[in-house]
Description:
Elements: H1 5-18, H2 20-27, H3 33-40, E1 50-54, H4 60-67, E2 71-76, H5 79-89, E3 92-95, E4 108-114, H6 125-134, E5 136-147, E6 161-166, E7 169-174, H7 176-185, E8 188-196, E9 207-214
Parallel strand pairs: 1-2, 1-4, 2-3, 4-5
Antiparallel strand pairs: 5-9, 6-7, 8-9
Amino acid sequence: MDAPPFDVSRRTLGHYESSSRAFWEGTRDHDVTENYAALLGSLDLAGPFTILDFGCGPGRDLAYFRSLGHEAVGLDGCMAFSAMAREQTGCEVLQQDFLALDLPEGRFDGVFANASLFHVPSRELPRVLCELRRAMKPRGVFFASNPRPSGGDPVSPSGTGREGWSGDRYGCYFEFERWREFFVAARFDELRHYYRPAGLPPSEQPWLAMVWRRGND
């Protein structure tokens, strides 16, 4: 990666700022109920839960969690998305760059990172995952869904994915083995992973979903 991390972040956020309405129209009806169930079904205690929607976008998933009675808190670095999410849901929304988080310790039962964590450059992932872990309660659950690699030569050290630009968006397109390295190093315990959409051959499943539990201190 040639550009400094915060330059990567600014360019990626600029893409979303300029296309926020089109993004909302294109994603508002996406069915991610399987991902909701993966997070909520892995939490130990009875709700309601306090859930951080990491990369909440315009607020689709926030609205769902709130409709179930949970305390849903959004976080997004995009100013337009943050404003849209507050307006759409009435939830608390933190406008924070993924690379400059300022989160309270031990607040969240769950973190829902649907199509968002992959925007963190790999050299920043260890720090960001540790910061998110600190913001979680003991035995909290972290859900993440990220795009898998497609085409191009693998450039990750372990050869299990690629990292770089797709237009004006920076992303880490890793297979599970590479993501596992980061989560285990940040002291998360694996619960399960799966691929989406369900029922298709692996070559036609572009999304990797993972469920992790905050490990013991």
